[in-house]
Design a protein that fits this description.
Largest interface: A-B, 24 and 26 residues
CATH superfamily of the largest domain in chain B: Thiamin diphosphate (ThDP)-binding fold, Pyr/PP domains
Number of helices of chain A: 19
CATH architecture of the largest domain in chain B: 3-Layer(aba) Sandwich
CATH topology of the largest domain in chain A: FAD/NAD(P)-binding domain
Strand order of the largest sheet of chain B: 3-2-4-5-7-6-12
Largest sheet of chain A: 5 strands, parallel
Number of helices of chain B: 13
Distance between the termini of chain A: 38 Å
Number of strands of chain B: 15
CATH class of the largest domain in chain A: Alpha Beta
Oligomer: heterodimer
Structural class of chain A: alpha/beta
Number of strands of chain A: 24
Number of domains of chain B: 2
Shape of chain A: globular
Structural class of chain B: alpha/beta
Radius of gyration of chain B: 21 Å
Helix content of chain B: 40-55%
Radius of gyration of chain A: 30 Å
Bound molecules: flavin-adenine dinucleotide, iron/sulfur cluster
Number of domains of chain A: 4
CATH architecture of the largest domain in chain A: 3-Layer(bba) Sandwich
Distance between the termini of chain B: 49 Å
Largest sheet of chain B: 7 strands, mixed
Helix content of chain A: 25-40%
Strand content of chain B: 15-25%
């Protein structure tokens, strides 16, 4: 009976208000329920969206608790090159972010970049696991090769990387320009891999400098030689001097070369290579025009890249395609004077070698979508026009070249066929990155390298009789469609999880009422005017404080972060803290109202059918 | 410390001085400033309270009920439609005997949509089990707010502080803000006698059979009876400490009066002015201001009005199909006085929907009562029967 002494009402023996005389503890309201809440941590959509398979939600959670070192540790557990991906990954994770439904996606790449830079600054070096007797050979040191090497080294293997170029990095080193990815950032991250004991043999092209069978000395081999063969224009005059593969041009500049370009550079293509060529040529002093056969919306290049190119002064000619490369010997009527002058100048000495003078182009229009679902461009008859050019850079996409591989490695439509853990089926040969059938991006390459590392570890442990082959791969994924998590493969998750299920939590399952709208931090940029003056990094990322504020914007989708709201809201006081962390539900009182599950800001409570 | 402030902020300051611990409110014109100020006070730490944002007045009252049930001091404020939306929960607070304090800015009810003052919103809540205290000045608003908490917690009844829209809510006046330490001495922390305790859970407000429901009602009625004396004590103590007292009722220059005007709210101030002018001319006119409407101050009213020949009640409200609500209640309270001591009572409906009640309107009421009084006297002198007391209230200051 509550203490109501002192209430003048009590003189009458009936309490002043309708209050039960017995404790309500006797009333086991739990018997009313037909559904029951259970704590069940799920997978955040960003985790599934990241092709590397990073536990983004996990490190955001650790950052919220100010456990910055643990956050870096968890990030480095999954991603070999966070300072690189924080800069050049197109962050599909953010497209999946639940917060976008409230205001704007969390700037995951911004946080990742800050942590990656911090890891470099603090010289953080992950510890390798117990050494293993086997050795693994890796061909190609692009992101796929680097990722595989890193994870295998951490798993205790002796790793040798064979690289044809003088320095490791693949496209990161020789394709992506300095102003997007400073080479010292890459070097620091490569050095971290070196420090794990990985042996890089550069300047060695397997199949040419080194016979393939050398690889047989390794217990397993991972091949990730990338896609470097530029596609041809397939038009008349394309062999003229002054027509050049874009990737080749970028490679020269990335090696430190500063080729003379002439005044006018025309880039053909609408992908990222095209944007890199255009913005690089601009920085070398040229006037740049990009020709693309579809419209702006149809460009495969990442939107931010196109925006940057426009801001810096690159011009675009959409719905236009070249039909003929014109030589200085034969210039179309459009610019006769110029052509004649050019010809006369050269008559002074030796007759000049023919050189590109420009492109005859045709206008295109878009027809019904083709099989890829994109509108099909078709030439508009009689719409030809001329574009003058001193240099034409082709950027129509790149294809892999794996002629050096054994004949019986299975291929299909120009790629090496692999299974879910990137095994080719040819002995201990694994493959990944751009030579396999997946999107050509850094994150996918890193993800495939990591997957192959787990595949090789599993293969070698199985061969050594340490494990069976029955491990359920789906349990290793970040959600049903996500990449493999090494954290799950090796164990030791720094985030406490209750009864985790491999299901992605939707926005509908979160409770945005507990979050106030907060503007997303935008990356800082060098002013466009300054960018044209050189190769300084154009995107400066976020300040550390901005990045930490972004981490606080994160919902921590699907994973209980002990915010205590369920306990506060339970109308039956059925929830209490449990000794070992987390919460307990007194089911004899929980009446199954579901308030806790509804209130949980992150969908970490699931209502289940009673008795099932 | 004297400060110039609007009536709304006088409420906020009263709540701050009373150290309310939970404030839950939903904004509505003309109440919004009260909670805005309180929100700022809680945000910047001047008031150590939990401010709960809610999606409706119904929820605001629900939150106050929950808070008060756990033993803390809870406050809300509303007006008009907001108060009407709370209706169900006003009963819950009343019969739950929860000492919540609420300020209501008297605003006419819709339709015709109105934000201007009259008393129909609060008078519609007459039977919900809330003490109702009407105020005349901003100083009275601040003082009554603090007093309200003490009264509420003394008798375990919720208290409504009522003030006129705009005439008080948005009008600035100098207000003396009492010293916090002295207010603390007047109003210590709430000591709840019955409260929700998670360590000894009991059901509140559960099914109550016919065997005890009526007794609960009787307890409530007894509490209201005690509230009359409790308010007098609270008001006395306040006067001792701070030099200002109001009383459930105020008689103003009623000595030897032939006609007494009865008012509530800000009409009182204008009426004081009229009374002063008439008295200056030697006319025997007085004023009674009704501050406490629930519990109804029957005894003090009988004391103040018996022996007065004629009473004119000014009602800024209307009970459709009957008349002015104060007039009805005063007639009922005085009905069983012996015939010689029972005044004639005229009711006037004035100032609905915020219409100005000017001195001219009040004079009009006064003259009508003077005429009807003269007629009655003449009839009595001719040996005619005394005219019926109950008659229709007259609408004054209204277009036909
Ligand atoms: C110009 C350009 C810009 C790009 N920008 C982005 C970007 O911003 N973001 C993004 O996500 N993706 C970008 N991409 C795509 C991305 O770079 C690739 O998808 C990714 O690098 C593929 O990685 P990989 O490891 O498979 O191959 P690569 O990075 O191509 O590396 C393959 C490596 O193998 C070496 N190699 C090849 N053959 C042999 C051999 N026989 N023996 C030894 N070594 C060999 C090569 O020298 C090379 O170092 C870009 C691509 C290009 C071309
Ligand atoms: S690697 Fe790319 S997709 Fe993965 S978290 Fe980083 S930015 Fe997002
Ligand atoms: S809110 Fe956080 S956890 Fe949720 S999807 Fe976005 S980044 Fe991932
Ligand atoms: S409400 Fe908070 S404490 Fe409860 S399950 Fe969700 S995240 Fe965890």
């Amino acid at each position: 009976m509550p203490d109501d002494r002192g209430s003048p009402d009590l003189a009458h023996g009936v309490p002043p208000v309708a209050v039960s005389s017995t404790s309500t503890r006797v009333n086991l309201t739990g018997s009313w329920k037909y559904i029951r809440p259970v704590y069940q941590d799920k997978v955040a959509p960003c985790n599934q969206g990241c092709p590397v398979g990073i536990d983004i939600e996990g490190y955001m959670n650790l950052l919220r608790e100010d456990r910055i070192e643990d956050a870096i540790g968890l990030l480095l557990r999954e991603n070999a090159l966070p300072a690189v991906t924080g800069r050049v990954c197109y962050h599909p994770c953010e497209n999946a972010c639940n917060r976008a439904w409230l205001d704007d996606a969390v700037s995951i790449h911004g946080v990742e970049r800050m942590l990656g830079d911090l890891a470099i600054e603090q010289r953080i070096l992950p510890e390798p696991e117990t050494p293993r007797p086997e050795t693994v050979g890796i061909v190609g040191s692009g992101p796929a090769g680097l990722s595989c090497a890193y994870h295998l080294a951490r798993l205790g293997y002796t790793v040798t990387v064979y690289e044809a170029e003088a320095e490791p990095g693949g496209i990161l080193r020789y394709g992506i320009p300095e102003y997007r990815l400073p080479k010292d950032v890459l070097a620091h991250e490569v050095n971290r891999i070196r420090a794990l004991g990985v042996d890089f043999r550069c300047g060695v092209q397997v199949g040419r400098d080194l016979p393939l069978n050398v690889l047989e000395s390794h217990d397993a081999v991972f091949v990730a030689t990338g896609a470097r063969r530029g596609r041809a224009l397939g038009i008349e005059g394309e062999d003229l001097p002054g027509v050049r593969a874009g990737l080749d041009f970028l490679r020269e500049v990335n090696r430190g070369g500063r080729p003379a370009l002439g005044h006018r550079v025309v880039v053909v293509g609408g992908g990222n290579t095209a944007m890199d060529c255009a913005r690089t040529a601009l920085r070398l002093g040229a006037e740049v025009l990009v020709l693309y056969r579809r419209g702006r919306e149809g460009m495969p290049a990442h939107d931010e890249e196109v925006e940057d190119a426009l801001r810096e002064g690159v011009r675009f000619e959409f719905l236009a395609a070249p039909v003929r490369v014109e030589s200085t010997e034969r210039v179309p009527d459009r610019e006769p004077l110029e052509a004649i002058e050019a010809t006369f100048d050269r008559f002074e000495g030796e007759p000049p070698a023919p050189h590109v003078a420009g492109l005859t182009c045709t206008r295109m229009r878009l027809e019904e979508p083709d099989r890829s679902g994109r509108p099909r461009p078709v030439p508009v008859e009689g719409s030809e026009f001329f574009v003058a050019a001193d240099l034409v850079l082709t950027a129509l996409g790149e294809d892999p070249d794996f002629d050096f591989l054994p004949e019986d490695v299975e291929r299909a439509s120009g790629v090496v066929r692999v299974n879910a853990l990137n095994a080719t089926g040819h002995g201990a040969l694994f493959a990944g990155g751009d030579i396999t059938d997946e999107p050509h991006t850094v994150a996918f390459a890193l993800g495939s390298g990591k997957r192959a590392a787990v595949g090789i570890d599993r293969y070698l442990r199985f061969r050594a009789g340490e494990i069976g082959d029955g491990a359920d791969l789906s349990e290793l994924r970040q959600g049903p469609k996500g990449n493999i998590s090494v954290t799950r493969w090796v164990g030791g998750d720094p985030v406490r999880r209750t009864d985790p299920v491999n299901r992605v939590v939707t926005f509908q399952e979160t409770n945005p009422a507990h979050f106030a709208p907060v503007a997303r931090a935008a990356d800082r940029h060098l002013p466009p005017g300054e960018r044209r003056l050189g190769f300084r990094e154009a995107n400066l990322g976020l300040e550390r404080e901005q990045a930490l504020a972004e981490a606080r914007r994160c919902f921590n989708c699907g994973v209980c972060n002990e915010c205590e709201l369920c306990l506060v809201f339970c109308p039956d006081l059925a929830i209490s803290r449990s000794a070992g962390g987390g919460y307990e539900i007194a089911y004899e009182y929980c009446k199954g109202c579901g308030v806790c599950a509804t209130e949980c800001p992150r969908g970490a409570i699931t209502m289940t059918r009673e008795g099932l | 410390m004297k400060k110039v402030m609007v009536g709304n902020h006088a409420v906020s300051w009263g709540v701050k001085l009373a150290r309310a611990e939970v404030i839950a409110a939903y904004p509505i014109t003309p109440q919004t400033q009260i909670v805005e100020e309180l929100a700022e006070m809680t945000a910047d730490g001047r008031l150590a309270a939990r401010f709960i944002k809610v999606e409706s007045e119904h929820s605001a009252m629900a939150a106050c009920i929950g808070a008060a049930a756990t033993g803390v001091r809870a406050f809300t404020a509303t007006s008009s439609q907001g108060l009407l939306l709370m209706h169900e929960l006003l009963h819950w607070a009343g019969l739950g005997r929860l000492p919540i304090v609420m300020a209501d800015i008297n605003r006419a009810v819709a339709p015709g949509w109105s934000i201007w003052t009259d008393q129909n919103d609060t008078l519609a809540q007459r039977d919900t089990g809330w003490v109702q205290l009407y105020c005349e000045t901003n100083q009275e608003v601040l003082d009554t707010t603090v007093q309200g908490f003490k009264l509420a917690e003394t008798v375990d009844l919720p208290v409504m502080i009522v003030l006129d829209a705009f005439f008080l809510s948005h009008t600035s006046e100098p207000v003396d803000v009492p010293d916090q330490a002295e207010v603390d001495a007047f109003l210590p922390r709430r000591e709840a006698r019955l409260k929700l305790d998670v360590h000894d859970p009991h059901a509140f407000g559960a099914l109550t059979t016919p065997a005890v429901y009526m007794e609960l009602r009787l307890r409530q009625q007894e509490a209201f009876d005690r509230a009359r004396e409790a308010f007098a004590a609270v008001d006395r103590e306040w006067a001792e400490r701070f030099g200002r007292g109001y009383g459930a009722l105020e008689s103003y220059r009623t000595e030897d009066a032939e006609i007494v005007l009865v008012t509530s709210g800000t009409i009182t101030s204008t009426t004081r002015h009229v009374v002063n002018e008439r008295r200056a001319r030697g006319e025997r006119i007085g004023l009674v201001k009704v501050k406490m409407f629930r519990p109804f101050p029957t005894g003090p009213l009988r004391d103040a009005l018996s022996h007065v020949p004629a009473v004119a009640v000014l009602d800024r409200n209307i009970s459709p199909g009957h008349g002015g609500i104060f007039a009805e209640e005063i007639r009922a309270a005085l009905y069983d006085l012996p015939p010689g001591r029972r005044p004639r009572i005229d009711g006037y409906v004035v100032g609905l929907g915020g219409r100005d009640v000017t001195p001219a309107v009040i004079e009009d009421c006064l003259e009508r009562t003077r005429r009807s009084q003269a007629e009655a006297a003449a009839a009595a002198a001719n040996g005619g029967a005394e005219r019926e007391i109950a008659r229709e209230d007259i609408w004054v200051g209204v277009k036909p």
